[in-house]
Amino acid sequence: MSEKSMVASRFIFCVIVVSMFLLILSSVFLLQFSSDHSLIPRSVLELILVNNTLLYFNPNFKREQVMLPPFPSGDQIRQRIMVPCDPTRALLRVFMYDLPPEFHFGILGWKGSENQKWPNVDDPKRIPAYPGGLNLQHSPEYWLTLDLLASNTPEVHRPCTAVRVQNSSKADVIFVPFFSSLSYNRNSKIKGNNDLVSVNKELQDKLVEFLMGQKEWKRSGGKDHLVIAHHPNSLLDARRKLGSAILVLADFGRYPVEIANVKKDVIAPYKHLVHTIPRAESSSYEERPTLLYFQGAIYRKDGGIIRQELYYLLKNEKDVHFAFGTIKGKGIHEASQGMALSKFCLNIAGDTPSSNRLFDAIASHCVPVIISDEIELPFEDALDYSEFCIFVRASDAVREGYLLNLLRLIKRETWTKMWERLKEITLHFEYQYPSQPGDAVNMIWQEVAHKVSSVRFDWHRKKRYHRS
Ligand SMILES: *[C@@H]1O[C@H](CO)[C@@H](O)[C@H](O)[C@H]1NC(C)=O
Ligand SMILES: *[C@@H]1O[C@H](CO)[C@@H](O)[C@H](O)[C@H]1NC(C)=O
């Protein structure tokens, strides 16, 4: 090679190196200092993938993490760094009717000042308290409503999954803030001698009348409305008329399929009654002497007959705790200790396919054994329950020796894997205020977002040939 061409090629090499360096430098610069005036559109920035994690690069915003809806391609939970809750960025824009307090916080005894429709929620210590005990199991109505109120309260830090908007034509879903489970639990009895119906029924009648008169309901026939009826007996009088809405339920046990079904409705977890065991304090395989734990009512109607059959099969086994009695008051403490020291916890169909025992087991990191053929599980599109639960068909469970053989064959290693997974997913079953990324409140909003898009899909297809 001649001297000249050597110099030329070196020069070209240098030019390439320098330009590559400049290119890298400028892209780093763009990423770091992008703001609203950036050359790169926000949507692109938002979707930069690092380690399977969505990161939002904008140092001007406060950084918090929020769950994105699990994508159908994988149920791995993705997180991104959050921006202040802004309706254009939220997963779900929610319009909430300003129903009078008698439908919601009024049932809790809350009284606002004149013309005050909603309690202040800026101080989490001073929000109206929900009654404890068994009522709490069916409290999603309360946590979701609080979360919506918080979305307009900048003092409260929460993930921006759902945001309340004031204009219903800008909303994805219309929220009906009726505490139907609490109304059932508190107001089902006919009180005064002159009253013909209970307050619970009266409220439902009023609610139906109110909704039927709203332009939002008329617009969609209620299909984009969200109604919460977690207690299986709540909304008993109104459910037929409100059945077109997206319902948040504990299960479908007491509903005809045309009113409630897995296609349009959302199954929400019960709020567990036992305390969640902190991860670090959770007993390991060796530290849990009881193989199998069950505590519940002996006789339940309908699907519950299997409880008795199992009782006769298991009552004489020494590493099995099988006792009857509901867990109320002191019983909760006992059950909590019992589950925390058991490897497996039985969840048998009761008078409804679901029960809060499953969620107590999860909070205790006790591997649930589910014997309930009709059970619907919360968030099953995001969670693979077979990773942390054992499913046994009812017909198998009542065969002599079957259940215990199955459980005794599960080795320490397999059990420990399930236990590790349980510790990871417990968060998804926590209701709390303020809500946290990935907790029950946020998981429910994500499920609602999925249902809303399928509702919208059907709705748009039906409109193809209708001009209005
Ligand atoms: C990517 O993953 C590796 C290994 O799992 C980890 O060390 C690294 O910190 C991660 N980077 C980011 C930006 O999360
Ligand atoms: C609500 O939004 C719609 C559509 O953007 C708009 O036409 C309407 O004026 C808004 N209503 C109010 C009260 O702001």
UniProtKB/TrEMBL annotation:
GO MF entries: glycosyltransferase activity
InterPro entries: Exostosin, Exostosin_GT47
Superkingdom in the source lineage: Eukaryota
UniProt membrane topology term: Single-pass type II membrane protein
Main location: Golgi
Any one annotated GO CC term: Golgi membrane
Record keywords, A-Z: Glycosyltransferase, Golgi apparatus, Membrane, Signal-anchor, Transferase, Transmembrane, Transmembrane helix
Signal peptide: none
Transmembrane stretches, start-end: 12-33
Pfam families the record matches: Exostosin_GT47
Subcellular location: Golgi apparatus membrane
Exostosin GT47 domain ranges (all copies): 91-405
Family to which this protein belongs: Belongs to the glycosyltransferase 47 family.
PANTHER family found in the cross-reference section: EXOSTOSIN HEPARAN SULFATE GLYCOSYLTRANSFERASE -RELATED, OS08G0438600 PROTEIN
Protein name: Putative arabinosyltransferase ARAD1
Originating organism: Senna tora
